[in-house]
Each structure stands twice: as C-alpha cells, then as structure tokens.
Specification:
Layout lengths: L3 H14 L11 E7 L16 E11 L2 E7 L4 H32 L1
Antiparallel strand pairs: 1-2, 2-3
Helix pairs in contact: 1-2
The structure holds zinc ion (ZN).
Length: about 110
C-alpha cells in the first residue's frame, strides 16, 4: 500500500507531466475585437454586425504600463494556446506548492 507521502509525490509527478512547455507561454490577455473604419459611408457605422473584424490582439503589462500586440489571423489559435498555457502553468505551480506544504507537514 502506498504511503501518503508516495501518493503526494505521485500527484506532483502527474501535475508536472501535464504542464505546458515553458517555450509556449505568454503572459497577457487575448482579445477579439471589431472595428469601425474611417469611411463615413461604410455600412460598419450603421450596425455592429457590419463592423470589420474580428481582429485579435494580446494586451500585456510591463511595469505600470499596459501594451498590446496585434496577432496575425494565421497565428490566432497558437497565440490563444500560449496565453492559456501561461495560466495552466501558474495553476500547476500553485497545485505543486500546496502538495509540497502537505509534504512538509508530514515530516514534522
Ligand atoms: Zn467600415
């Protein structure tokens, strides 16, 4: 039978094996948006359903400022995955930290 320590270590390995690769992460918010153009006679001014788009960008902060970077349409899914990976990675770090706290408590 597995000890509690072994079970906790097994859980950690399980979490680690599912973490996304560090090379495919992006800290930011993925944003989908539509645009009204400069041509005043364009139908995009009449209704939201005629607006141009969707376009994609990622907003991110650095220091106290926020920035954004446009995402080419062809890279949309990849960049969305990178943003999701960042959040998954942090969740994994939180989960492993919680397990490590349990492991410390087992030794004292
Ligand atoms: Zn327009």
């Amino acid at each position: 039978m597995q000890s509690q320590r072994q079970r906790l270590n097994k859980k950690k390995q399980n979490i680690t094996s599912k973490l996304p690769p560090l090379t495919e992460i992006l800290r930011g918010t993925f944003i989908e948006w539509w645009q009204v153009c400069a041509r005043s006679n364009c139908k995009c001014h009449k209704s939201r359903k005629y607006q141009h788009g969707p376009f994609y960008r990622v907003s991110y902060s650095k220091g106290n400022r926020s920035y954004h970077v446009y995402v080419p349409l062809k890279d949309k899914e990849k960049i969305k995955t990178w943003v999701n990976n960042y959040n998954k990675l942090w969740q994994g770090i939180e989960d492993i930290s919680a397990l490590n706290i349990k492991l410390i408590r087992k030794t004292v």
